[in-house]
Amino acid sequence: MATFVYSRQRISMLQSPFCETNSANKLAPFSYTGVAVNSSGLGASQVLHMGVKSSKLASGCYGRGLSGKTRGGVDSCWTKVYGRRAQERVLEEEAPQTSEAPGPFKLFPGQAFPLGVSEVDNGINFAVFSQNATAVTLCLSLPSSGKVGTSDDGMIELGLDPRENKTGDIWHICIEGLPRRSVLYGYRMDGPRNWRDGHRFDSNIMLIDPYAKLVEGRRIFGDSSQKLSKFMGTYDFDSLPFDWGDDIKLPNIPEKDLVIYEMNVRAFTADESSGLDVNTRGSYLGVIEKIPHLLELGVNAVELLPVFEFDEFEFQRCRNPRDHMINTWGYSTINFFSPMSRYASSGGGPVNASQEFKEMVKALHNSGIEVILDVVYNHTNEADDEHPNTTSFRGIDNKVYYMLDLNNGGRLLNFSGCGNTLNCNHPVVMELILDSLRHWVTEYHVDGFRFDLASVLCRGTDGSPLSAPPLIRAIAKDATLSRCKIIAEPWDCGGLYLVGGFPNWDRWAEWNGKYRDDMRRFIKGDAGMKGIFATRVSGSADLYKVNKRKPYHSINFVIAHDGFTLYDLVSYNFKHNDANGEGGNDGCNDNYSWNCGAEGETDDANIKALRSRQMKNFHLALMVSQGTPMMMMGDEYGHTRYGNNNSYGHDTGINNFQWRQLDERRKSHFRFFSEAIKFRKTHSVFRHEDFLKKGDVKWHEDNWDNPESKFLAFTLHGENGGDIYLAFNAHDYFVKVSIPPPPQNRSWYRVVDTNLFSPDDFISEGVSGIGSTYKIAPYSSILLEAKPAA
Description:
Elements: E1 8-12, E2 32-37, E3 43-48, E4 52-53, E5 69-70, E6 74-81, E7 84-91, E8 105-108, E9 116-120, E10 123-129, E11 135-141, E12 155-159, E13 166-167, E14 170-176, E15 181-190, E16 214-216, E17 232-236, E18 260-263, H1 265-269, H2 284-289, H3 291-297, E19 301-304, H4 349-366, E20 370-375, H5 393-401, E21 404-405, E22 411-412, H6 427-442, E23 448-451, H7 470-477, E24 485-488, E25 509-511, H8 513-523, H9 530-537, H10 541-544, E26 554-557, H11 566-569, H12 605-624, E27 628-632, H13 659-664, H14 666-681, E28 697-699, E29 711-716, E30 724-729, E31 735-738, E32 746-753, E33 762-767, E34 773-776, E35 780-788
Helix pairs in contact: 8-9, 12-14
């Protein structure tokens, strides 16, 4: 049975045998094609002659139709538009019986730039790129009865004439008389249908403008009653400019001084334990409410998991092993310019989401916290050719936007592991990415970006690695982005591993995956790791001491969103991903974890104490390492995902911050983590601008070549005798170590001993009475500070 998805009125700017002007400058009768969509997604067309007619909605999934009469009339005259003569057409519509008429409109050819929707002198301009499309139709849904996002009048469709509405490869039209906000719009495109040549045109599919600044979809995150909501672009030219304040001061924190907190906007406050109103939980405003927690912890930058518009129900489009899951991480971008609309409070929609995102950034900045966005330019939500999810790029110009294997039937290349790979170094796609980044900096005042699977951005249009990728260079050299932190995840799913070798122009920092692996292996007691542990703690000079690169170009981390949490790292030897529906085949197998004697939860007090020590050891090592430290949300209280190391699809307590657990551990685990961060921030010895020189560090070691040695001690020499002594014991036995003499007129004070219970495990002012030796417990570490003698 055919099901109308929406009713629509079609007004074509193409002259046709059915639309000819008579001597009275009135339209002769013309035909209208109304399309119903059946269960297979194919169009069932009906031709309605002698005028335009609306259809009643037979069975509504996404909207509702309205029975009514419309009458079209076009007056023609010649006018000067954008420096050239163009034919002006006026469309007048008779009001449907239940709402006011949306016209009259005046249609102009429009202009090619800027891409997207813009307000110009004589109306609203629409411009979209497609090199290979042969037919483009702009679809408009007007607001009715003051209700945002609804249209009782059906869909107005405007076919664009390539003779009037196309400049180069850009299709455009300008409409006078449109509302200045709340109009929903999209495109239908047609073109070559040969998949072997890389084309995926389908004129039945409504497509989102790649340059849409706002996207309207369902309003409430995870609202299953709106699971199949249609996503469309929208705009807002009515709202006043956001008030950033009279004296805008961005934090501009030097990279060497950053302490990054990786977090998920929704998961941070979605749990009822957050204590927030149900309409604020999981929102941008929810983050604002919890800024005091970030300040108490001591971090000064948040790295937000993807906040570009994505569809959390994408796994439920068809039957598959993951169709019970909800995408909570967001690594499946629909549009690169629009903030995630369902992170607005109270289901406020895209306009409110934009406003509240800015409020969040402003509040974080006013608290001295920078905002870094995790951005996904390596692939989109449109999946692969076996299970395509065409929403935008694929239907607009697949051959341009995606990497293809034209020698293998035009199939999509997949270096992202997600079915498609964005063609990042194609000039058009590169400019899209640059425009998107500039938009987030100028419109939303963000401070930097972490690029997911950034090695994809280093591939040419055929997928081959490039030594000097144009996009990577352009980002590094762009004037608008010059104040931003730019961080690469320097690998992809095609095996292009570039840790330490990412093209950088002395600007790019990197997620140091080798730091993560080497730190895990040493702390858990693997043999032969002492030397490389020393290299990682001292800034990974083996990777980054090249040209003008600095220690802070190494983003040091032990834990990130994908993989085990810190608690799970010391509690599980194996991943436990059965809840993901893929039989445990997903997620990384090489976790370098150790459960400390029991798999998962246990009541054994000794195992629990050992796990606590190990978490403190990891955190201390991270905070005393040269480079830029990053920790993950929830590790400050010991969050567990119960061994799931790939929890992207769980909108539950598996991912959500547990505020009651934080309160329970505030005086112990959290206190240690907070004190360690603050100690780093107040001691420049951990934050060298340049790589350590011989006089900066003393290694108390003469056993480098012994692979069974799992103990390392060293002194960092601070200014004016403010030395720091550190020792890490990864043996399963006590080590009695000789403590070197402190600098003149100084004494050693114990600040940290991870073997002690709180509050003795971290005393920032230090405990005096340290002798010439210290007995360091198994799997523990100490930090001593040389302070003026009492």
